[in-house]
# Entry
Amino acid sequence: MTAFASADDRSLLDLLLVAAERALGDADRDSAGVDSVYVGNMAAEAFNARSGLANALVGGLGMTGVTARRVENTSASGASAFQSAVAAVASGRSERALAVGGEKMSAADTATATEIISRITHDREYEQGVTLPSFGGLAAAAYLRETDADRRDLSRVAVKNHANAYANEYAQFNKRIDGDDVLASPAVAEPLRLYDCCPTSDGAAAVVVESGSGATDDAVTIAACESATGTHAVADRADPLEIASVRTAGERAYDAAGFGADAVDLACIHDAFTILEWLEMEELGLAPAGRAWERTRDGKTDLDGELPVNPGGGLKARGHPLGATGISQVIELVWQLRGDLPDERAVEGASRGLAVNVAGFGNNAVCTLLEGDA
Amino acid sequence: MTELLECRDCGRRTYYEKRRCPECGGAAFDAVPAGTGELLSVTTVHVTPDGVREPNALGLASFPGGANVIAQLDGELSIGDDVRLVGERALRVTEDGPLWGVRIVAAE
# Structure
């Protein structure tokens, strides 16, 4: 992957090419052996006036004769591209697949980026001026009212994820923050403040997927990659704290993998807003309903806790280049499971990891389970 | 519209128009008055898209028949308040003129 950044001078295509070449190099594979390519990207037409990404990418890699396409699933485009690659290999249609995801959001000013992203909503939501943080604010207000968690507990999610990103050379932010910094940052959608929200980012990420027979010794096994949609209109959910897409994708993934939440050693959760880290942990069975905040407060989700969550900094601090995020989560799990990382940012003894990448505020979710050989 | 869409087959209500009922798959809906709802959550949004008021106070309200609505708030409202929908309000300015829709206000 590329290091995520607020603004990267390279074009979106260049970012994708760099990420793809790094993935092939890491896997010790030549592009000639790849027979399918899936490119996750949400909105290159709107952000960058660029279309035809998949064909441009394979052309840039000197590949012809492969199956290639772009996969779009808003902020879960990366994981959906990964799921397409996994499905192609699992079905036998592809011997070796490349999943690449990227977004270059800095090309748009904040108002334009907000408009592009809020266009994913239902027309009845759009006309209200609803933005993605608006959903986060409504969910956070309801959660703080229905549980014993308070505003300072929510800040701990951002503080932890910044601390985890501090030693991650691929993270957008390498700055530790404390709870006072969160509370001093401008209000975005009350009770959420700026430091509760992920940034806009530039970046790309890629992985190589192939069948087990010829895999390298340190390859990580894909135990499951499953997805599910939820409601499109967020208010169509009976409970404002429910994200059924995440719950269903998680249940399908646990079923396919043959192990459950209890066996997960670390998790990369789609923390576009601090509140989402709690809601998704609860939907995935990583904490009981209404109790995820206690795990955060008690340090159980810290890097050295019982279940480290977002050891790479999460969307909050690693950054959130929409189409890249789902693949960057998979890469973080691979690095952790292979034991590649320096001590100061390694999860000790991890053998099973979970990643969940969410489209919009739960329109769709993709849950991946990976197994190392620890 | 201050009405909800009620599935003619199963009675499930929604504010968000769609071709099929998510509960039973029915394709016919009747417009019914939303009635009095309860405010489940509120937020004030300070970063809004062009053409949208700033700050933008939004609420999530639950109405009879299982329909929840997210809409702009008019007036001081808190979680737990009884509310109703009012229309047609100019909610957002676009190049093609205003977008009209409902707001949530206190029930009388």
Remarks:
- The two ends of chain A are 24 Å apart (CA to CA).
- The interface with chain B takes residues 110-111, 114-115, 118, 122, 124-131, 133-135, 137-142, 145, 186-192, 231-238, 240 of chain A (CB under 8 Å).
